[in-house]
Amino acid sequence: MIKKDFVEEIVKETGLSKSMVKMIIEKFIDNLRESLLKKERIEIRNFGVFKVKKVKPKKGRNLRTGEEIPVPERWKVTFKPSKIFSQLNSENPEQSLPFDTTEKI
Predict the structure, then answer these.
(1) Could you tell me which residues come within 8 angstroms of residue 43 by beta carbon, excluding any fewer than 6 positions away?
(2) 40-78 pLDDT tens trace
(3) What HEC string does the chain produce?
(4) Residue 105 pLDDT more than 80?
(5) Range of the domain at 21
(6) Residue 77 lies in a domain
């Protein structure tokens, strides 16, 4: 599903104009992005939590040459789904989500 699909679904359900819904979704994404750039925790009830975590530096390997190369520390966005997703998996195994909701992504 892409942003355009979300816009069309919301337009069908609410009767709002397509341009209004698109603007709202884009503003939501912009605010989400800005908050993550500020390394803020974002909690959306009954959906999940986005966090920004620091990943320690490590040693990597060039797969072509086998040479060891340093990988610098970096920031990574993680998402932890809410418990409602776990409940969906246990109640309806045939409609379960294609990922394990007990682990962080």
Answers:
(1) 49, 50
(2) 999 999 899 999 999 999 999 999 999 999 999 999 999
(3) CCHHHHHHHHHHHHCCCHHHHHHHHHHHHHHHHHHHHCCCCEEECCCEEEEEEEECCEEEECCCCCCEEEECCEEEEEEEECHHHHHHHHHCHHHCCCCCCCCCC
(4) no
(5) 1-38
(6) no
Cβ-contact 80, 47 below 8 angstroms: no
- The tally of domains found in the chain comes to 1
Q: 11 exposed, middle or buried (CB, 10 Å; 0-12, 13-18, 19+)?
A: middle
The Cα–Cα gap between 34 and 39 comes to 9
- Kindly report the pTM of this predicted structure: 0.69
